[in-house]
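Entry type: protein chain
Record version: 2
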Amino acid sequence: MMDTTLFDPGLLGVIVAAGLLTWMTRVGGPWLIARVRLGPAANAALEATPGAVLVALVAPAALSRPSDAIAALFVCLIARRVPMALAVALGVLAVVILRRLL
């Protein structure tokens, strides 16, 4: 039987290092952007990133089921007229409803 009260300093070091690296990536991006002058192309790329990530997450699902494709089309139609968070919430609701119906 293994003793569960053992303290492993190496494991604690890995946990602390992982937490520190996570924190550095979270803080490092805004810190770096505040100190680097970006051109118009880089600014446009950074502004387009959230939408590109969302499409990369949704596209495989939208191509897998007809209900998801209809929901994705619905979100594309409303995304320019409502805030992005609302469009995502309505898209999730559409997926739930359409999966039950189709």
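Comment: The two ends are 52 Å apart (CA to CA).
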